[in-house]
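Subject: mismatched residue count in predicted assembly?

I count 687 residues in my input, but I want to confirm that the predicted structure covers every chain. Input:
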Amino acid sequence: MRAPQSWNRLPRVAPEKVLVLSQRSCALPSMAPRPLLPYGNGRSYGDVCLNDHGTLLVTRGLDRFIDFDPQTGLLRCEAGMTLAEVLALVVPQGWFLPSTPGTRQVTVGGAVANDVHGKNHHAVGSFGHHVRALELLRSDGEVITCGPGRADAWFAATVGGLGLTGLIRWVELQLMPIQTPWMWVESQRFANLEAFWPLNRRAEARWPYTVAWIDCLAKGKARGRGILLAGQHAPPQATPPSFKEGCKRVPIDPPLSLVNRLSLKVFNALYYRQPVKPQGGLSHYVPYFYPLDAIQDWNRIYGRRGFYQYQCVLPPEAAEAATAALLDTVARRGEGSFLAVLKTFGRKPSVGMLSFPRPGTTLALDFPNRGDKTLRLLDDLDAIVCEAGGALYPGKDARMPARLFQSGFPQWEAFSRFIDPAFSSRFWQRVTSGNE
Amino acid sequence: MNSLKRVVIIGATSTIAEHTARQLVEKGASLYCIGRNPDKLQALLQDLKVRAGDNQRIDGCVADLLDVDRHDALIETAEQALGGMDAVLIAHGTLPDQQACQRDVALMRREVETNALSVISLLTLLGNRFEQQGAGVIAAIGSVAGNRGRQSNYVYGAAKGMVAIFLQGLRNRLAAHGVDVVTLKPGFVATPMTADFDRSGPLWAQPQDVARGIIKAMIHGRGETYLPGFWRWIMLVITHIPEPLFKRMTL
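Triage response: the counts match. Full output below for your records.
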């Protein structure tokens, strides 16, 4: 079997062994090389899903529903099921995921383990807030059922716990009612970062979903220009438009990244000039939430060398200045990111000890891997994030230094007591090394 | 075109059968699922019940198919649960350890029991029922391995070959009675049964795709179906290699 990779294809390491799990009733392997680490659908960027000295437990075969009540929207399913599979069942019955990341291809277990968030974080919190219960299988055979008000400490460790507290076998989620699969979306251009903040504040007060795309190559007065997208689930339509999902794929690995200085400049400029809909319009939920799911294997456009994601969160008091500093640094190097995404998180405290979402502003960037040059840029961005008292998203990291992780996640030592002694990951070894 | 509204799946917890079951439920079928492992069967039935609509029936039971004496009662129970049978899919089987079978006659016989005798026992009973009813589809999962004996897995191949020839005869007999008999021959499929193989080549198929092919073959009553279809041509070549040459090859 080909070695499972992470979505940004960095770092390229193979585990000692890959074990495909297909039944939730099965015990964890006792003979396989340790440490163990669950691997879902390989959509995280970096090495939280990699385990080069041990065994990857591939969970995609745990893809069964266990129970669903269409009256209450309570769903229980195995942890290897993807959000796409969940949506295919529940949307026609009038339910939706209360919190969803920008791809449907992640597994439910992965969504819990990374405590993923969506465009509606300011309104509803992150994925972990909607988990009612989950079952954890430990390597000593112990089975722990936890949730809000039930084995709380285990729940807090496992939500955002990067798969380290044991194997999540099933998850129970409270879904959210919707009337149609359609979204009502308004988009608005803003001329620079200064214009973004008040616009975003107004949008957040009115809309459950908000996110902004930023042209990160724009400099000077245009620095931080972009488009703010606000959305809400649409009420029933007299004549609903038709929607057919197409699927294209990137068939080969180009020898060089197709994302380069020139293509970025053109793309970002065109993106900024796209027609906006200040009066609003309808969009099906699939292209609204998951635009990149329409292009299978889109990660290939960065070529064989892969790419780095960089997503940070900056505390509210430092957010405006630090965001400006980050964008300045990126624009100055001309290393621009394909699409920079800017969003403010709400004040709801996250459930997990290692959850990434917290009050403040989050900026997500991606950079083709150009070796040392890219790493030096990321180090410079680190300095700004660190100074602002921010943190980087473990689920999107392949290189952050241990001290940045430890300052961004002060509960990491308390968390480590909950790690299954047989579990670890390349990420965990990397960000905790030098402390043992 | 056969209707697949009430389908009995024997060996339903195998990965290929499970995906076939999900897709049948999505198309509105009621299912009766028979499996050996109670935990696996329960997980399967729970999943199918969530996927099914209110007017679809999902039921099943645990059975050891080596207990041939129980076969008739099993089929009867399934038929009553569904209020009739439009189709049956026989999907149970194991992948024997060829080397171990060479050393152990009892093991070899057990593998043949599982993969061939239990299947043709069921087919005998089902053949008579469907002949009476004068409509429907009987399908069984064989294997490309049944087309020619190879040193690497000829116990499995012999068992699957026996099933294929039995199905051929049954098809011939039931054709006059409006019953379709379908022989399904999957190639390499990425399932737990093949988890220890290097599965990186282009010949490996996903169980969802094989399941789609199974349903299509059952609806259209295709006789012998390779899954995916290109295996027909691969097997055509393999079965035509002259024996004096073939016996020296390692396949």
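Chain A has a mean pLDDT of 94. Marking this ticket as 'not a bug'.
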